[in-house]
Structure formats: C-alpha cells, structure tokens
## 1
Amino acid sequence: MSAEGHDHAQDHEHEHHHKDTFITKYIFSIDHKMIAKQYLITGIVMGIVGVMMSMLFRMQLAWPEESFKIFNVLLGDKFAPNGVMANDIYLALVTIHGTIMVFFVLTAGLSGTFSNLLIPLQIGARDMASGFLNMISYWLFFLSSVVMLSSLFVEAGPASAGWTIYPPLSALPQAIPGSGSGMTLWLVSMALFIAASLMGSLNYIVTVINLRTKGMSMTRLPLTIWAFFVTAIIGVVSFPVLLSAALLLIFDRSFGTSFFLSDIYIAGEVLHYQGGSPVLFEHLFWFLGHPEVYIVILPALGITSEIIATNSRKPIFGYRAMIMSILAIAFLSTIVWGHHMFISGMNPFLGSVFTFTTLLIAIPSAVKAFNYITTLWKGNLQLNPAMLFSIGLVSTFITGGLTGIILGDSTLDINVHDTYFVVAHFHLVMGISALYGMFAGIYHWFPKMFGRMLNKNLGYIHFWVTAVCAYGVFFPMHFIGLAGLPRRYYTNTNFPLFDDLQNVNVLITTFALIGGVFQLVFLYNFFSSIFYGKKAVQNPWRSNTLEWTTPVEHMHGNWPGEIPEVHRWPYDYSNPGHDEDFVPQNVPMKEGEVVLHH
Amino acid sequence: MTSLLVIIVLVLLAIALWQLTKIFDLTQVGGEADDSQIANDGDNNTQGYLMFGFLAFIYIFTIYGLIKWSSLVLHTPASAHGDDIDNLMNVTWVLIFIVQAITQVLLHYFAFKYRGKQGQKALFFSDSTKLEVIWSGIPAVVLAVLILFGLYAWTNIMFVDEDEETIVVEVYAQQFKWTARYAGPDNVLGKANVRLIDGVNTLGVDMSDPNAQDDIVVSELHIPKGKKVHFKFRSQDVLHSAYFPHFRAQMNCVPGMVTEFAFEPIYTSDEYRQLPYMVEKVANINAIRTKKSAELVAKGEPALDPYTFDYLLLCNKICGASHYNMQMKVVVDTPEDYKKWLSEKPTLVQEVKAANAPKPVEGGVETDSTKAKDTAAIAKIAMK
C-alpha cells in the first residue's frame, strides 16, 4: 500500500508539469476539491432562489392579495397584475421552493459539496475513484439546475402540483397550467438530477470502500465519512425508483399510457385513461421521498458529529453506537415511506405496519441526540460559529423530531395530515437542521476549501439571528396546523373560521423576512472572505482528521509526499496519555499506549 | 418613496451590524489583537452566555405560545371516535414536552457550563454501554406503549364493521367543489363511473342500476347526530382530500377508486355552536372581522358578514389553482330534522326526468349522447 502511495506521488509530480488552463482548473475540473466548490456555489445560488421564493409566498400568506410592487417586478404582469400575486403562481412558488431546497440545496449542495471535499481528504486518497465521472456528475447537476430555473420562464408557468408532483394534477395541463411545459421541464430536470446523483453516489461508495489509506479501517473512519457513505448507499437504492416513477409519468403525460391515471372527467370531457392508480405513484414517489429525508439529514448529522467532537475537545460519545444508529436509520428509512400515505386510500392494515416501522426510527434518533448532548458534557467547548450551528442543529433536530411521533402515528396523523403542523415538523427536523449542518460545514471547512478564514463575528450574528428566526417561523406554525389550517392554500380569507390565525401568520412572515434578509450577512462573509479573508493556518481547529494534514494551498493529489498512514481513531481529543488535547490520526501510537475506547 | 425607506432601513441595519461586530470585538479579553477568526476565551464566554439566553428564549417563547395560541387549536371533537384521537394526542404531547424540556435544558446548559477556557482539558469519556442501553431502552418501551395505543385506536377507527348499521353517503370531489349522494331508503349507492356523466347526472351514476333509483344528489351535506355515517369518496379529476377537522376525519379522494371513512357525529351544529369554547372563538373571530370591516368601509368596500360557526368539509390535497376555496358546509341535524330534510330532496331519477322532459333535443346534444353511449360501454366493463 505504501509503495502504491509512492507511485501515486510520482504520478502526481509528473502531472504537475502540465500547466492547468483556466478551463481545466476552474470549469471542467476533475479535482474533487474544485468540484466540491462548484457544488457549493451552485447550491448557494439555488438556495438564494429557493429562499427568496419562500419570502414571496410568506408575504402573500401574511397579507393576502395585497399589492406589493416587488411581486410585479419579480413575477411580471401575468402572474402579479398590479402587484397582487395570482393564485397559480403561488402554487408554483411553493412547488419550486420545495424542489429546489430539498434536491438542489440540501441534497446536491450539502452532500455534493462535503462528500466530494471530505471523502478523499479524510480517508487519505488522492482523489475520487473516478475523477471523470465526478466531473460529469457535477455538470449534469449544473444542467439540471439550468433546466429547473429555465422552467420558471415558460409561458404557462413552472410546475405547480407541489414538490411531490402527485398525478393526475401533475399529468394534466387541463387541471393546472403548470402541468404543461413547466412540468415537462421539471421532469427532465429531475431525470438529469437523478443521473448526476447516482454517478456521485457510486463514486463515493467505491472511493470509501477501495481508496482508504493504510491503517484506515472502517472503524477508524470519521463519522462524516460514515454518514456520506451510508447516504450514498440510500441514494443508490432509492433514487432509481424516483427515476422510474418520473419516466412512467412522462409516458402517461406524453404517450397516453395509464400507469397512474384512471376514470378522469375534466374540462367537460372523459379522458381515455383506464386502470392506472395515483396511489401507485405515491408509493413510488415516497419510496425515494422518505429516504430522501435521510439523504438530506444524515450528512448534516455526520458533519455535526465531527464538529461537535472537535470543538468540545472530547471524543464523540459512543462512536460505535453512532455508526449503528446511522445504519439503523438507513435501514428503517427504506421501510417507512407509507407514513406519508396513511389516508391515501391504501389498506388501513398497511397503515398499522408503517406506524410501527416509523416510530422505531425514534430510537436510533434518540441515541444520536443523547450522544451529542453527552459529548458536550464536561467538554472544553470552543464556541466557533460552526459549533454554534451544530448545537443549533441538535436543538432543531430534537424539536422537529419529537413532533414526528405525532405524525408517524397513523391515528394522530388523520387530523394533522397536510396541515401546517406537517410544514412545521419537516422544516425543523430536516429543513432547518440540514441547513444548519450545511452552514456548520461551510464555517468549519471554509479554510480547507479556500485557504482563508470566514469572519467569526459575522458568523455569530448570522447564527443568532437565524436561530431566533427559525424558531420564530416554525414554532407558531404548529399551532395553526393544530387549528386545522391546510397547507398550500393561497389565502385563508375564504374561511372565516381561520380569521383568528391571521395574526400568527403575520408574525411568522415577519420572522421569515428578517431571517431571509440576514442571510445576506452570510453571503457577504462568504464571498468577501474568499478573496479578503484572513489567511488560514494548516489546522485552525486543531482537529485530528487527515484533511488538516494537507497543505493550505490546494494541489492535485492532496499530499505533496506520501499519503499519511493512520494509526488511531479520529477522536483522540483530550486523551489523558498525551500532552496536547488532540492527537491527529497519523500520529503513531506511543510505546505501550492503550486504546481507550471501543 | 417606499423604496427609499427600504434602502434607509437596510443602511441602518448594516450600520447596526457593523456596530455589533465591534461590540463582539470589544468583549474579547486581553488587549492583544486577535484576528485569527478562531473562538478565544472571550468568544466562548459571550457565546456561552448567549446559549443560556437562547434556552430562556425557547422556554419563554414556548410558554408565550401555549398561553396565547392554545385557544386557536381544535378543541372538543364532534365525533364519537374523536376522543380516542385527542386523548392519545394529549398523552403524546405530555411525553413530547417532558423530553423537549429536559433535552433542550441539557443541550444549552452544557453549552454554557462547559464553555472553553485556554489550558483546560476536557474529560476523555468515549463510550458507555450502560448509558446507550438506557437511552435506547427507555424510548423503546415508551414507543411500544404509544404504538400499541395508536394501533388499537387506528383499527377501531378505520375498519368499518360491515354488520353495523350505518348511513351510506357518497362524497364526490371535483375541481373545486364537493357534492354528496345519499343512498336513499335501500342504503345502497347505485353504481357510478365518470364515463356516465351526462347533463344533470353530474356524478356519472348508472341510471339503469336498480340501487340507483332512490339515490339523492345534493350540494350541502346533512348528517344525523348519533348515527354512524359511512362515507364513500370519489373524485372525477385529480386527487382531493376530504378533511372534516372538527370530526377528526380525513380521507383522500382518488380518481378511479372508492375510498372510505366512517364516523358518528355527537353534537348537532346548534349544540356545537353553544359549546363555551366555540362561543368564545366565534366572538373573537367576529371582533377581528368587525375591525377589518371598519377598515374596508373606510376604503369604500363592503363590510364583512358576521361569522356563525358551521362544520366544514375542506379540500386538503393540492388540487389546482382554486384549491384554497374548495369547501362544503356540513350540517349535523337531529335524526328527525335529518329525515325531514332528506325527504324533501328529489331523487336523481326525478331530476334527470325533469331535465330531459321540456327541452327539445338539439344536434349538439345528440352527438354528446352517442359519445356517452360509447363511453358507457367501457364504464360497464370498468365497474366490474
């Protein structure tokens, strides 16, 4: 192995004589670190679009059908005549907001960035198993982003059937204008996205299995890598199912098949569809859709594990229990999809089974939460912005996760299904939590990505305003959900019953707007620090993992000489046998040193 | 003008931020300039206290919410099975609040208590099988109890006993309205398929089916108190969801299949209006509406009607642009009133006859009816 590593080093030196052109270095790069940055910046751009959409529809919800000049400026005369948001564009905004945030920001932006950056660096590999496939993966993702954004400009408007695109609504342009060419572009974009995601995932899996450096056994992998690895496996198992669902939907839409459609009378005529079932689509969609939640949250939890351990100057508590819980969550995530369908018309007996499997997920989730809290106990906490976001993640993960006990219970789901209670739940547990994980990762690994530091005080302001606003938005939302307010309503003014919820909606929107605007602090910090940030030292957080043994200046192949050999697990923080409070993984065991952990 | 104001606010915000970063800088201990952008003891101290403050924020916000917004949430179920749901819900809430209270305290308090100091070393505490067993075991036991209670209630609610005496009502969904069909004296709904939709027969009922002869189609849903109503749901176009929030009942309406849900109303509409919580809620809503009306009148627009409570059936699955306004009034009558109301309604057969009788057949209608015949043949096959 070490001889092989040496060969790689030689190859690398040989390679270095070729001058990188601008195009091979910054655009069609096969270097995982550059691809990670490409993913991140694309993700951030998509995130800006997604968050801005949510601010627009939140304004409509707080001040229904009022005229805002900004609506007219952004949405145009067709969708916001006189500055009043039209009802079909409201649904389009909700749909595209969900799609962008779930897939483009929290799947590609989060997993794509940090899996690419950290897998080779933390396992001690010179690059991904296939740099070429990695490049193709990014560019397919880029293309899918372009297609998704271009769907905003088609005449009838973008897809508007909700991010879950349930047919028949998504299949019939007669049912909603967005189901015309907007929906076609949505499906094309998602097909490209899935292809990109599969290429990425296969690459991650192969790299983790085959390219670990000498001494890096599976039980010495940082929890980040475990999370990315398991996430990639879930992705490979479930994304193809969404692809097939999307293909069948394309057949139904364009070639007259009846996979998901049957007995439809719309716009004064009977359609020819016979024998299909929308419930079948729901099964296929959620077979990906639910694991997708874990595809989003597991990398965030992996990042958090690493950051909490480093900044607590303590080993992560229960390393093996953490791995077991990741595996348990991954396994369970593939057999709980039916809890989105308790009242879909499927057999109630099936509902019982899914209630059982769903509530089981609370056990590994509880283990993770308690392990994080115990890691903080008697630590020497370095409250860097990344650490604050990680603690914030644990907080919102608990708050949002607990209401999952209600939604996962079929009996209780009957009355809160598809209300704002659901919106509050999943935004806290996967939306905000995963976003915090992403921010934590950015603050922590920015020095590794750009060789410079982010401004910490701007980071603190960013965190505190975001933390207050996140609770401010989603905590009150539970109440309006419990009042029976359905989600995806353009306005509630047709129901005097809900008149008393309007003040709460105004409060929610106020928090949403403040929180949204304050993300500018992050954007300013991020983009200005790339160029003007303070130069980073090699290992600013005094961390144990291998990425901090590489030079600050990026180079192909990551390490100038041989790849370091690994002698210990990644969490030897404050090990009583050592003077320093951290012992990097490549430090050999001392004479007679005993392993102090399981 | 507004844009100018917005710009001024943004500039002021930026200045405030700049000042805040200055304050953070000043809180750092020691005179030496530290621009490493890594948290030092001063940062740890400030952020630790802020963590503690955030804990207070979460608690105060939660308590504020519970006091201020609890009156908004659904109360007193109007159906027989509703108490099963609400009781389970309350038990679950108690558990959630206990866990939430404990974990958030520990998390934020530890973040405050163990804020770092230079030269201090953390405790090397890597694992404990005992602790892991405790905190996977306790949730497992608690969840097992919740699952058992949940499944017991679920089975009772969802499986309708075939022998039980129920009133069969079809709820029919289409963009963007609801229609109801009563099975009539035989309590069996006639067969139906969207391919049979023709004129006043908007639900596609098979008029040749003997069971359909006494079916009654109405646009307002009346159900009797104290009788279990067995709803059968159909949709003619896209997915809808029939949501009866006050009855703790919901079921999707799926084109191409019939879904079902049964519940027994236990308060008539009038009785439910008299419940103290509802009286208070309606008064509150009317106060809000009066205020809004005053604003509207000042602008020269008509005032809002005062609100009286009615049970509602809402669409709760995104179904198109006007999804937000797909509703039907539900009236719970005494059994006598219900019988009287229903007996005054014409059957579908009578309505079809009335519609066909006076009008001479025009060319356009004729092609329509031949088309209907074609599709009727398919529908027969489909209905098997």
Note: Chain B has two domains: 39-115+142-159, 167-272+306-383.
## 2
Amino acid sequence: MALVELRDIRKIYHVGDQDIAALDGVSLTIDAGEFLCIIGPSGSGKSTLMHLLGCLDTPTSGSLLIDGVDVSNATDDQLSRMRNSKIGFVFQAFNLLPKLDVLHNVELPMVYAGVSAKVRRERAIAAIERVDLGHRMYNTPLQLSGGQCQRVAIARAIVNNPKIVFADEPTGNLDSKTGETILTLFRELAESGCTIVIVTHDNNIASRLPRRIEMRDGRIRVGVEAAKSQTAPLLVSHPTPQKGEEAQP
Amino acid sequence: MNFWFGLIIGLKEIGAHKFRSFLTMLGIILGVASLLSMFALTEGVARGMREMLAASGGVQRVEVNNKEPSEEKQDLAFLSPGRTMDDVAALEKGASLVDLVVPEMNQGMPISRDNKTLRLKAIGTSPGYFELGILELEEGRLLAQNDIDQVNRVVVIGSDIPGELWPENPSYRPIGESIRIMGVPYRIVGILKHYESNAAKRKREAGVSDAQLKRRMARMGKTKKKMRQYDQFWEKNHCIAVPYSTYFNDFRTASNADGSPNRKLDRLSFRVADIALFDETLTQVRSILDRTHRGIDDFGFDTREEWFDNIESSIRATRTSGSLIAGISLLVGGIGITNIMLASITERIREIGVRRAIGARRHDIFVQIVVESGVIGVIGGILGLLAATGVVQVLVLLSPVENAPIITFSAVMISFGFAVGIGVISGLYPAWKASTLDPIEALRYG
C-alpha cells in the first residue's frame, strides 16, 4: 500500500516581490518498504521535496498523505508529532547534540515521545547495538569518527520505529569507504522492511538503488525514473514493488 | 517534554559554562542577598520595638499628657489645675470603661545607703503602677492601698538596686533594710523581678558575661551610661517606687516657687478595659477630664496604638524602599539572564533545529529554555540566601542587641520566590524566540 502519496504539490517561496516555485506540481507515491533516492542538481527542489515529505514544512497547494494522514494543512504541533512518531532523519552533518553522549542522543526522540526512562534506555541500547556501536555508548560525538557519528544518527533515526527514514546526503561528509559502510547499513535496514529515502546529488549512489526519482526545476523528470529502476542492479535481495505512477502525466 | 529532562539539560548547560553562568547569576545573588538582609534588618527593628511596646504595657495603656490649650482658651489656661490626684479620683469614680488609673509623681533624686549614692528617678505612685507596667515581684510585697492611706515610708525597688547599693554582696536581698531617698529613710518592702530583653537573654544564655560585656563596651569606647538607651528594661530594673501620699508629703509640700505644695502629677496613665471600645473609652475619659480641668483642653492622649501604628508604618516604609532597591538589583539580574539566554540560543540554533526535526514541539523548546533560565534563578537564589545569611551574621555583630536582624521563614521564601520568578520571567522572551525558529532554517544555520 502507498505509505506516502503526493498529489500535484506546489511550494512557492516569496522572495522580495517575486514568487519562486520550488516545487511546481509534483505527484509521487512511495510504498512501504521501498528503498529509493531523490536525485537532482542543487536548486532542483529535492531538498524542498524532502522537507515536505519529512513534515518539516507544508505545501502551498496540493495534498500530501503520509501513512494515511493528510498533513498538507497540519498545524505545527501535528507536524512535530508526525516527525516524532513516523519519520526519522539522517543529516549530512550528523547533527548530533555535542554535549550528550551516544546513549542520550539516541534516547532524545523518545524523550519527546514521552517514553518512560526505563523503556527509553532499553530501546536506545538496542538501536545502538543495531548500528554496531555498543562499545561507544558513553562517548560524546566529539570522541567519535565521522562514520561512527553517522551510525549514531541512524540509530537515533530508527529508535522510534518510524515508517520512513529520510537521509539527506548521508555520505556527503564521509570518505568513500566509510560512505560505503553507511550505505550498507541503510541497505540492511531496508531489507528488514524499513522505508528509506536518500536525497543525494551523487549518481554513484543513486544508480545502485532500486528506485530513483530525478528532480529538475521543481518537477520530477518524466521517464527517467522508470528506465532507471529497470536497469539498476537490484542490490536489495527481495523484490521491490514498483508502481511507476510517480511521473507527471 | 519531561520536566526533569529539561532540568538536567539546564544543569548541564550551566555546568558547561560555569563562569559565564556564575556571572549571570551574580545579579540574582546580589539581589536576593540584599532583599533578604533588608527583610532581616526591618524584622529585627520591628521585633525590638514590639518587645519594647509589650514591656511598657501594650496598646491598652494610654497616657494623659500635657498639651498646649487651643488658642481661644489660652488666656484661661491658668484656670486649669493640670493633671492632679483629682483627675485620678474622678476617673476612678466615673470612667466605667477604664479599669486602672495610675498617677505618678517623679523626680531624679539621690538614693543612698551608708556612703553609696545613686542618682535615680524616684516614683510616687499607687499599687496599680505595678499592674499597668507589668512589673512582678520577686521577694517581699508590692505597695498596698494601706501604704497610701497610712502614708507609710516604704519602697519597692528594681532588681539592679541591691547589687548597686550592696556591692559587697550582690546576691543579698535587702528586705526590711532602709535606704534614704533625698535623705529621708524608707524601708524596703519588695524587690522586683529581673527583666531582660529576649536578645539579652539569648546573649546571656550564649555565655556572654557582664565582664565580657564591659570589656566589649570598653573596646567600643562606650561607657555603661551610653549603653542605657539600648536597654528598654533598664528603668524597670532601677525602679524606686513609693506610695504617692508619702512622696507628696516628703517631697512636694513646699516645692512650688511661692512655697505652696505642688499637686501636679508628672504622669497619668490609665488602662482601657476593652480594646474593642478603645475610641469610646478615650471619649469618656476626655469628657471627665474636661470637667476636672474646668473646660481647658490642656491635655492629650498618648496612645500606644498610635505609637504602634507609627512603628508599623515606618517599618513598612523602610521595607518598601529597601525592596525597591533590592528589586532593581533583581531586575538588572533578570536582564542579565535574558541577555545570556539570547546569546545561548543563538549559539544553539542548530541544536534547536535538530530537536525540532526529531519531534520536539514548539512548546517543548519553550519549556526547555524557560527551565534553563529558571534553574539559573534557583541556583542564584540559593547562593543569594547563603550570602544573605553571611551578611546578617556580620550585621548581628555590628548592630545594637535589641535590633539584631532576624531572618524569618517567610522572608526567605519571598526572596527565593522572587529569584525563581525573575529567572523564569527572564527566560520567557528567549524561549519564545527559540520556539518560533523555523526548523528548516535552524537546521541550515551555521
């Protein structure tokens, strides 16, 4: 079933007396369990699209359903709830809180979800062990390498069992070898059933994912997606359902 | 968000910038310290005054004093006999709302025994004197109506007199012994209890002996005489009370310039039977005295109530002005907190963005910042209270015993509450600013 459904989304920014359409009529469906990427040059609208999908912002017009909930006109508090319970973020710059140790960084989303301290601790430990950092539990981010930081960020993103994880250039600040291990981690997560959306401008990454959505000038490029998704080597072992309705008619 | 979590974050934030946080708190610390010291000082003064008031007979006691008659009666003023025993008789007979009338004639006189002479105020009065002034007997008996009627030469003395007239044996209770008042021998029939203020009692119990006190006074360049004004019980302990009839016979019969007896009282006090009828009582007494004074309004009332009100209002005034100054200090401290919190959230815009991205609501961010500044207020308040305790200790050493500052629980709570309140209020604007940051902008920041 469709986890995310976008219908004719527009996002218009007012800059001075000019209106700039960052997204200009985007329709898209993402199914549960998909592992896909959004690719495009800077200024193509991919970040804006991710912000909308990630409930950090609301569209100017069009409808946006996430897990069956229409968030296109949601209030700030509703969006916060959505982000907290259904969405996980992984950023290029990791964005861990430098004063908290690994454990507390990972616990943080559950604090805002109102999970009790005991359960929080258990689930955080499980998530940290899942990204192989059980031995770094009480280190602060400053004592960790970039790859380790990103793994902590992933643990934080998945600790609330979100429906979908957004990764914005997750390998952008890492060397290629470390980036590879992070991608492998995402792949493992995808295999275990998590829906993952990677936003990148790196074709190397994009070409290895089961599905790619290419953005250009605020629109999804017609045809590219379907072609790529068929030729791309399937890195994910289980077959990914493809609907191919995302492109604009 | 969990309040405790916010508290922990706040403490960590303060711990991460110890010096900066301390400087921020300094305003609050000074504000609270000055507020509490001021409360303690005025409370000390108030206690001292209330103690003095209670010692002098409380608000029920009213004194009839001399007053300039009003202008149109000034030419007739000679008609009035002034305050005399006639007033006492008239009041005892007619003033139903008064339950005690006490006349007093007094004058400083040499009090001697053998070759030792004291110069003290001898008082000619009635038995009611002891009741009105709340003077209790330690040994012997008080003056009785019989003494008045029979014009006995008897005297009741304060507890410090024996020690000063019999210095060779301070514990001697000289009941039945004779002392001379202006050369006239009087027999001691009673010795009053020793009176001391609570402060003096505390001091004595803390082990400050007279010798120590004398040394201390010598060090401070004060003689015992100078210290008198600080002891409201000095007069009680140096009481020389004789029957007014005897006093009149011995000292007043030819004391006017023309050789006539001086019948005037030096003091006339009465006690209001029911404090609820205070004003009615004064009216009644006024109308009776109008008759005995032949319509000349040459008397007025000195009520302790007025005195009490004056004390209270002057304390209130001191308290208000002190609070204002301390309040300004607290306000400055609050502005300091606001300033630092604003700097702190600018430093942490990205952190706020991250918190928002992982699901913190605006409200959560708001609470976090307010809790942080509240914690500064709480810690500043606690340090301020400690500082005030130190300041008060110093003041206790410096100030006169009766007015030693006192820290009361409510003063502590008020000062502390102010500190916390200022901390929280100063955090409101930064918290609002932080909570309205756009998460996308905040994530991009820096």
Note: Chain A has a mean pLDDT of 85.
